[in-house]
Amino acid sequence: MLVFLILSWLCAPLSCAAESLTVAVASSLYPQMQQQARAFEASNHVTVRLVPGSTGRLYNQIMQGAPYDLFVAADKQRPSLLRQQGRAIDQSPAGQGYLGVRLGKRLISDIRLLTRPSVRHIAIANPDVAPFGRLARNALQQRGLWSALQPKLVYAQNAMQAAMMAEKGLVDAGLVPLNSPQHAIASLDYQAVLLSDTPLARSWLKQFLAVRQTRSGGRED
């Protein structure tokens, strides 16, 4: 009995240690969110599980019943659809994301350089499921380059994979997400969606939005 009381006393302050959050996050934002998740875990004695992927695929998983507590999307369309379906409790703007062009080891602002014969393969996130892919396609279409560059395009599952392919030199260039507007050729709006109405989920969302609102600058992915 004494042992049980001692264990109960020791565990009481850590009662939330068994709690956890599962956050579905657009892959373009995943690298930035890892540090924030670790900080939240340390200050709240909880486990935060980040599940990266394309916004479209994560949306489909949520519609199929995936047990996510929150969802950070790279567009407004899917969060709005989740609210219409009664699957989202709340939706909040979560800052901007930026699209840039990586040519070899450099970030460039002149997208026309991708038409050079030396650029044979260009990584791009799949426009059908990834907002960054759709943003890249729109940027190329607006500049009249889509048709010319289509034969060079290598489609990645999501923005993070496209960035990795470009950084590792698996392709000659890539249309990739950036953390700051420097070198950006287009931008989009992130949305944070509350899926589970718990104090822990609301606390994470509040902290996440505060960080996003105060964040400035940062390294490019």
Describe, in short, the structure shown.
The chain has 221 residues and is α/β, with parallel strands linked by helices. It contains 8 helices and 9 strands. Strands 1, 2, 3, 4, 5, 6, 7, 8 and 9 form a 9-stranded mixed sheet that branches.
Which shape, going by the Cα principal axes?
Answer: elongated
How many β-strands, per DSSP?
9
* Largest β sheet strand count, sense and barrel closure: 9 strands, mixed
**Please, how many helices?**
8
CATH class of the largest domain: Alpha Beta
Q: Please state the average pLDDT score.
A: 89
Tags for this model:
D-Maltodextrin-Binding Protein, domain 2, 8 helices, disordered N terminus, 2 domains, 221 residues, elongated, nine-stranded mixed sheet, 9 strands, alpha/beta, disordered C terminus
Any overview of this molecule?
The chain is an alpha/beta fold. The chain has helices at 2-11, 30-44, 55-63, 77-84, 131-142, 146-149, 159-167, 199-214; strands at residues 20-26, 47-53, 70-73, 90-103, 106-108, 122-125, 153-156, 173-178, 186-194. The chain folds into two domains: 20-96 and 189-214, Periplasmic binding protein-like II (D-Maltodextrin-Binding Protein, domain 2, 3-Layer(aba) Sandwich); 98-186, Periplasmic binding protein-like II (D-Maltodextrin-Binding Protein, domain 2, 3-Layer(aba) Sandwich). The protein is 38% helix and 26% strand. The chain is elongated and about 55 Å long. The termini are far apart. The model is unreliable at 1-17 and 216-221 (pLDDT under 50).
